[in-house]
Design a protein that fits this description.
heterodimer; A: 258 residues; alpha/beta; Rossmann fold; six-stranded mixed beta sheet; three-stranded antiparallel beta sheet; 34% helix; B: 355 residues; mainly alpha; ABC transporter involved in vitamin B12 uptake, BtuC; two-stranded antiparallel ribbon; 16 helices; 1% strand; disordered N terminus
């Protein structure tokens, strides 16, 4: 029972290191199942380091619990999906093959995919409307299509926690919106817990339940968009004049005018 | 709606799958080339006799191949061992090349270009020149020192390449520098010990000249064990194509994978160098041909390189034996004749991806 009551992610006093350098100090945050945490902050603030530490790719100290449990490396790969900023797209690999790689952590002895694995990846392709692309090479896709294919791989992993590092950095504003909307609808439909590093503060405010603002390796603000996306807090963290406008729909539009 | 078009189903079904037709076809080609290899030579032995002679050796089958005793000895003591050795060396080098290419995520990585062949060659020369002769079974001193040399070379190439950056071109330049240095040391040792010079030269340029089955017993355990490890690693090598971090996040233990593949690939190179000298370009050309013809997944590249490598080298040996008959070309010359232009063609077609 504790599993359902415990937060999906519990980060307690975590410090992250890159070699001898401390890139993030004493971050603590809890995230309920099914919610979306946006990591925001200037370049080098430690957003990617925190994401990488959650999946145990980076060096860190402190406690990370998932639904109240510590997870081994093998369990992490089953329960947490991670999409880096620029996912590699190997030449000569088809979309269907790429998405099937999402099943890696679930394969048994001899690592042969079962029909069930193939069906799951097919379903992920269908959810992201990628059926007609299945036989295309991943290197032949546009930026927006490639990002959808990466998300399909994440879905095929059937993890309940999804970590996204700047998922929209290479996209135009139309595709940025559609990718974030897609992540949001998948989250709501499948009950995923999402942690995403985002540069677009307006979008972060619209889509995330909670924001964590990192600056020079420390957490400087945490909470709802109303609390974090204020001119004062952002101007100080980004070291420039930031204006926040309340849009008619209640969301916040963040502009840098400095 | 989750309706998926037929093409998506087919693509998902075909993803990473090695078609049985391709597998059977490549095995049939290998058998045909092997029979061709056994038929080729000054003594006239027909393909029919070769097949019957082989059938006769199977349990519960007794057929008359029509060969006299002299022909039978030629077949069993000279031709078959040579064909089998060619096949094993071709398999070993091609498997080794496909392993390096997977681990370095670099289509041009191969035992020759990474300096591994040169390292193995130096190790073997040290064993020959200093007359180090100890060992047990398939682990004789030449093979052991060749492996040591191969590992030194691969570690040196990787370290030099890493220190200068992570691009494909830099790794290969590092490999070429390491190879040049190790070859220089090897030449120095060979010149110093002139009494062994002829023996070492005859071996270093690559030859499948063998009588009897000794070299085959030496090589086959390496091919069996390391080949199995590489075959079992082929799916993980596909995941590694996503890069180290993404592969780790998907649950692959990349360090373990990297070391097990590197050790097996180096053992395969070392063992084949120990029995047949330095035969260039096989480890580069064969996996590439497989990629061009059947696709780039390691689930196809590894097994088909093993089969294709054997076919390629047996055929190259037939050419080596027949082009200047009765004189014999070193087989390394034949593989370089095919490999060097092929290498040029790869560089030309993939020039944008390499740097």
């Amino acid at each position: 029972m504790t599993r359902h009551l415990a937060p999906a992610i519990q980060i307690d006093n975590v410090s992250c290191f890159y070699g001898d350098t401390t890139v993030l100090r004493d971050v603590s945050v809890e995230l309920e199942t099914g919610s979306w945490l946006g990591l925001i902050g200037p370049n080098g603030a430690g957003k990617s380091s925190l994401l990488r530490s959650i999946i145990n790719l980076g060096q860190y100290e402190g406690t990370m619990l998932f639904h109240g449990e510590k997870l081994s490396r093998a369990q992490l790969a089953k329960r947490i999906a991670y999409l880096p900023q620029n996912p590699s797209l190997p030449s000569g690999m088809t979309v269907a093959e790429y998405v099937l790689l999402g099943r890696t952590a679930h394969l048994g002895w001899f690592e042969r995919e079962t029909q069930a694995d193939r069906d799951i990846s097919l379903d992920s392709l269908a959810r992201l409307e990628l059926g007609p692309f299945a036989d295309r090479f991943v290197t032949d896709l546009s930026g927006g299509e490639a990002q959808r294919v990466s998300l399909a791989r994440v879905l095929a992993q059937q993890a309940d926690i999804v970590l996204l590092d700047e998922p929209t950095s290479a996209l135009d504003i139309g595709h940025q919106q559609s990718v974030l909307a897609m992540v949001n609808s998948l989250r709501l439909e499948l009950g995923l817990t999402v942690v995403a590093a985002l540069h677009d503060l307006t979008a972060a405010g619209r889509f995330c339940d909670e924001l964590l603002l990192l600056h020079k390796g420390t957490a400087v603000a945490h909470g709802s968009a109303d609390k974090v996306l204020t001119s004062k807090v952002l101007s100080s963290a980004y070291e420039t004049d930031v204006t926040v406008i309340n849009a008619p729909d209640g969301s916040r539009v963040v502009l840098a005018l400095g | 709606m989750t309706a998926v078009g037929l093409s998506a189903h087919q693509a998902a079904k075909r993803a990473f799958r090695l078609s049985p037709l391709v597998l059977i076809g490549s095995l049939i080609l290998l058998v045909c080339v092997a029979i061709f290899g056994a038929v080729t030579g000054p003594a006239n032995i027909s393909a029919r006799s070769v097949v019957l002679e082989l059938l006769d050796r199977l349990p519960l089958i007794a057929v008359d191949s029509g060969l006299d005793e002299r022909q039978s000895i030629i077949l069993w003591q000279w031709r078959f061992p040579r064909v089998v050795l060619g096949g094993l060396v071709g398999t070993a080098l091609s498997l080794s090349g496909s392993g390096y290419q997977g681990v370095f995520r670099n289509p041009l990585a191969s035992p020759f270009l990474l300096g591994v062949s040169a390292g193995a060659g130096l190790g073997a020369v040290i064993a020959i020149v200093y007359g180090i002769d100890a060992g047990f079974g398939p682990v004789d001193s030449i093979a052991a020192l060749a492996f040591l040399g191969a590992m030194v070379a691969i570690v040196a190439s990787t370290a030099v390449g890493r220190s200068a950056g992570r691009s494909t071109a830099i790794l290969l330049l590092a490999g070429i520098a390491v190879a040049a240095f190790l070859t220089a040391v090897q030449t120095y040792l060979m010149q110093r010990s002139s009494e062994n010079l002829r023996q070492v030269y005859a071996w270093i340029f690559g030859s499948l000249q063998t009588s009897g089955w000794t070299d085959i017993w030496l090589l086959s355990p390496y091919v069996a064990i390391c080949g199995t490890v590489l075959l079992l690693s082929r799916r993980q090598l596909d995941v590694l194509r996503l890069g180290e971090e993404e592969a780790e996040a998907l649950g692959v233990q990349t360090k373990r994978l990297r070391w097990s593949v590197l050790i097996c690939a180096s053992l395969l190179t070392a063992a084949s160098v120990a029995v047949s000298g330095i035969i260039t370009f096989v480890g580069l050309v064969v996996p590439h041909m497989v990629r061009l013809m059947f696709g780039s997944s390691y689930r196809l590249v590894v097994p088909l390189s093993a089969i294709g490598g054997a076919t390629f080298l047996i055929f190259a040996d037939v050419l080596a034996r027949s082009l200047l008959s009765p004189a014999e070309l070193p087989i390394g010359v034949v593989t370089a004749f095919v490999g060097a232009p092929f290498f040029g063609a790869i560089l030309y077609t993939s020039r944008r991806d390499l740097v």
